[in-house]
Amino acid sequence: MFAAAYDLFWHYRDIYLRGLENALTAAAFGLVLSLFAGGLAGIIRFSSKGTAGRVVAIYVSVVRNTPMLVQVYFIYFGLPALGVTLSAFATGVVALTFNSGAYIAEIARGGLAAIPQGQTEAAMALGLSRRVLLARVLIPQAAPTILPAITGQFVQLIKDTSLLYTIAVLEITKAADDVGNETYQFLEAYLVSCLIYVVICVVLNLLVDQYERRAGFSRHRRV
Amino acid sequence: MTFFEARDVNFHFGSFHALRDVSFEFGKGDVLVVCGPSGSGKSTLIRSINRLAGPLTSGSMSIEGRDLANMRARELYRRIGMVFQRFNLFQHLSVLENIALPQRRVLGKSRREAAERARGLLDRVGLADKADSYPARLSGGQQQRVAICRALAMEPELLLFDEPTSALDPEMVGEVLQVMRGLAAGGMTMIVVTHEMGFARELGTEILFMEAGQVVERAPPAAFFANPREARTRAFLDQILHH
Fold it and tell me: Which ipTM did the prediction report?
């Protein structure tokens, strides 16, 4: 079975590799954008009890309580009615960012909220502004603790690229499906895609483990 | 001459009346010791001075005649420093950085100036060799001494101490009190919430005894310990001195 899968992969390597490339590109964009958007949303949710905080809360709630497939369809098929038409690939990036950003926002908010209140009180009593409090006291302490959860979210994001199959982005799952349809070797075709996902996600986890093991990284920042 | 004045201060946590018509005043260089049973409003009192507790329900507090409620946060926190029960050092920063960061960010000092001042203060409290350590590596007594340095680095006119020795192991209380003794001798104006009656007797200019959010008795230490006027004060002293 594995030998057959390997033969299949080798024969159709072009399509698999193109799928892999598209999936990784979409994931990379989604990763960077969602880290930025989600981090910002999390900080807003943490520090604002007013309108801005409530808007973020609604955003997070919408994302968490709807299937991602529906979010993809909404952006791809729904938004054109409002005059926003995106290519399939752009839809993928936006959907991944929108979805992952909400989870990262929750992770970031949780990380910030877990820091003892005394840190905030000390900063206030010393006259530090809220901006300095966040940037110099809270975020540097929250960042290392939320890193594992963020990694988990990135692995999720890579797996979620498979949903872009439904809007005909040639990513890993679409590649496998195309190969299966052509050869009728569905078992082998999908086995190849499974292994590709496993390899990417395991490598990602190992990289982050490595990074975390150099645990000093957060402890020796300059003021 | 009056430096600090609290006039008919009332404070609520929701429906809980935490401070009731609290009034007192003291002069520059004085050490006001606040004591009383737990839940009496001591911490709330000093936390309401620097707004950590929230706005007063009524009444006013002022420094040199200036109402604290109208003072901009920047000025308020420059003039009033605070030392906490649980030290609250920034865990991700070294001892030196803990003391330097606020100087740089609030007072606008250069990295070098701030570090120099930090080292000078650490030297004064006997922790010069700990400048590059992280708080987690220090004992409670050492952390509290660093926290005092951090507050002093801002050159406050008034320093608030919220039970500075209550979270310490007994053998470390002395080293922190020693530093506070030095501050008092140097003329620092302080409000100290504490159960250390020895400290109160030795260094207090005046003692404020609180219960149930009210000031029950206010007297210089000699009178306070020798012949307390109020029955509630006597009961408290009996408990705390003969347990």
Answer: 0.93
Retrieve residue A201's tokens.
């996600």
User: What is the nearest CA distance from B230 to chain A, expressed in angstroms?
Assistant: 35
Q: B93 CA to chain A: closest CA distance, Å?
A: 7
pTM beyond 0.95: no
Instruction: Round to whole Å and give the CA distance between A193 and A172.
Output: 6
Contact flag A223-B88 (C-beta cutoff 8 Å):
no
* Cβ atoms of residues B8 and B28 within 8 Å: no
Residues near A166 by Cβ (< 8 Å), separated by ≥ 6?
A69, A72, A73
- Helix pair A51-64, A13-47: axis angle to 10 deg: 140
CATH topology of domain A2-221: MetI-like fold (1.10.3720)
Where exactly are the structural domains of chain A?
Answer: 2-221
Q: Over its length of 223 residues, how does chain A's per-residue pLDDT go in tens digits?
A: 889 999 999 999 999 999 999 999 999 999 999 999 999 999 999 998 899 999 999 999 999 999 999 999 999 999 999 999 999 999 999 999 999 999 999 999 999 999 999 999 999 999 999 999 999 999 999 998 898 888 889 899 999 999 999 998 999 999 999 999 999 999 999 999 999 999 999 998 888 888 777 755 444 443 3
